[in-house]
Amino acid sequence: MNDLAYIETLFGHQDAIPAVASFASERCVSVGARDRSARVWKIVDETQLVYQISGDASSLLKEKVRSSVTGQAMKDPVPEGSMDCVAVIDEQRFVTGSDNGDIILWSLNKKKPQFTYRLGHGEDPPLSPAEHSAEMTPEDAGIPPQPRWITCLASLPYTDLFFSGSWDGKLGMWKVSEDLKRFDLLQYIDLGIRGVINGISVEERGKRGVDGVRVILAIGAESRLGRWKTIKGGKNCALIVSLGVSKA
């Protein structure tokens, strides 16, 4: 910004970069969609740290995971296909969201996920055989329900509060634990509007920790990443939600 000019291009991701979030120091974190990695860029040092879930689904069973529906450990995690959004919690932690419904808490000191919450916005009902197959008379092969993607994340910086979005018509509000090792759902806020939450911005109102927060949502009939998901009756609009919550 001091030079008002282009400085440098940083290379590392192997796919498109759908989201970037910045720390207070001269560092930022990005996610690389289908390369399934988050990278923390140390701008001054010209180095990067790579954070990625290891390989197969069996390894995911070892993570600390919870279902958003039952709160219990899940036995059959859906493999991650694309890591699409990221938000910074503090100078040492950030959260990512993926197309398998996972919301993951990462610590800069650990290359493996610190905590994983599965099905953060639940699942869509299974498709009918006719919708799932191009055959004229498809058989019912027990098509499983599909997780709703985590389409965006945003935090109230340097507090324990962050928000998530998908296409279920609800805004997820989450609280990081005091030991900073996990997070829990505070509530789902019913927006009363159909559509995909494609963007979230959060700011405090009035006096810090007293007057609550204002959340601004960008909602669309389609996903911001393409027409992979179109919501029937979805609205293209900006929505402002005021929440009377107190933050430490």
Verbal overview:
By secondary structure, the protein is mainly β. The chain has a domain at 19-127 and 141-193: Methylamine Dehydrogenase, Chain H (7 Propeller). It contains 2 helices and 20 strands. The protein has helices at 57-60, 129-132, and strands spanning 19-22, 27-31, 37-42, 47-52, 65-67, 83-90, 93-98, 103-107, 115-118, 123-124, 146-147, 152-155, 161-165, 170-176, 183-190, 196-204, 213-220, 222-223, 226-230, 237-243. The strands form 6 sheets. The protein has a 5-stranded mixed β-sheet, with no helix packed on it. Strands 1-2-3-4 form a 4-stranded antiparallel β-sheet, with no helix packed on it. A 4-stranded antiparallel β-sheet has the order 12-13-14-15, with no helix packed on it. A hairpin with a 6-residue loop joins strand 14 and strand 15 (183-190). It is globular, with a radius of gyration of 19 Å. Residues 56-64 have low confidence and may be disordered.
The value of Rg in angstroms is: 19 Å
N- and C-termini, Cα separation = 32 Å
Low-pLDDT residue spans: 56-64
What is the CATH T-level topology of the domain at 19-127 and 141-193?
Methylamine Dehydrogenase, Chain H
Secondary structure: helix percent? under 10%
Major sheet: size, sense and barrel closure?
Answer: 5 strands, mixed
| Total count of helical runs of at least 4 residues | 2
According to CATH, the homologous superfamily of the domain at 19-127 and 141-193 is YVTN repeat-like/Quinoprotein amine dehydrogenase
Strand order of the largest sheet: 5-9-8-7-6
SS elements, strand count: 20
Helix-strand sequence: EEEEHEEEEEEHEEEEEEEEEE
| CATH architecture heading of the domain at 19-127 and 141-193 | 7 Propeller
